[in-house]
Specification:
- The longest helix has 58 residues.
- About 2% of the residues have low confidence.
- The protein is mostly helical.
- The chain starts with a helix and ends in a 22-residue tail after the last helix.
- The protein has one domain.
- The chain is rod-shaped.
- It is built from six helices and no strands.
């Protein structure tokens, strides 16, 4: 959650706790009791959305690392095939042109190139192996292609889930704030002659403001500039 969202969430928790501490004053069948029950549900939903947001953000960060590892492994495969093809091209002119490395770091371009390498290398598999490429180099290439595809899919899923959780937090917070506004009238009417309880309500519904701006640094004096 962003700071503003966290402060609003903490306020809703305090409001929920205020109602739970005074449950006898707000039976379930009353308007206040229904509103406090709905707010309790909202707080539980926010807990779940926040957990999902944090978990999927962490998964997306981890996915970035996994994607980089898979990318490096696949590029290493392509570099070995390219290097060997250039050596083979001495006796087979034009072969190296079929195994050119992609420019840049675009993963989809890398995958497209890898798939082309996998297909184009099949007729020359024996010759690649005679040049000391591993006997299973095409199987290794296919596995590394699959690993990068999976890493991309996993990262995208985590990113999408993080965005969905963030949107859910926004929507649920808005609902909770509307409940708090409704409760404000109910509580103030209920305790209009009870200044101590009204003070507790005011404290519970207070939302922490943004951190105060840093104090301005003192202007340098002529003495300090010497």
């Amino acid at each position: 959650m962003k700071d503003t969202e966290r402060h609003a969430y903490e306020m809703l928790v305090r409001v929920r706790d205020f109602g739970q501490a005074r449950a006898a004053d707000f039976p379930a069948a009353t308007t206040g009791g229904g509103l406090f029950a709905a707010l309790d549900t909202i707080v539980q939903e926010l807990d779940g959305h926040a957990e999902a947001q944090t978990s999927n953000r962490s998964a997306a960060v981890q996915g970035t690392t996994g994607r980089a590892v898979a990318r490096a492994a696949l590029r290493e495969d392509l570099e070995a095939i390219n290097r060997t093809a250039r050596a083979m091209a001495i006796n087979n002119p034009g072969l190296a042109d079929r195994f050119r490395l992609p420019r840049g770091n675009n993963d989809q371009t890398l995958l497209s190139t890898a798939r082309a390498f996998a297909s184009d290398a099949v007729p020359f598999k024996a010759e690649f192996i005679r040049h000391e490429m591993p006997a299973a180099f095409l199987d290794d290439l296919a596995a590394d292609i699959a690993d990068l595809e999976q890493a991309i899919a996993d990262q995208n899923r985590s990113g999408d889930a993080h965005i969905a959780a963030t949107q859910s937090i926004d929507t649920t917070l808005e609902h909770g704030l509307n409940l708090k506004r409704q409760l404000d009238a109910v509580v103030r009417n209920k305790y209009r002659a009870d200044s101590a309880t009204l003070a507790a309500w005011t404290s519970a519904t207070h939302v922490e403001s943004k951190a105060k701006a840093k104090k301005a640094q003192p202007k340098p004096t002529a003495e300090s500039q010497k």
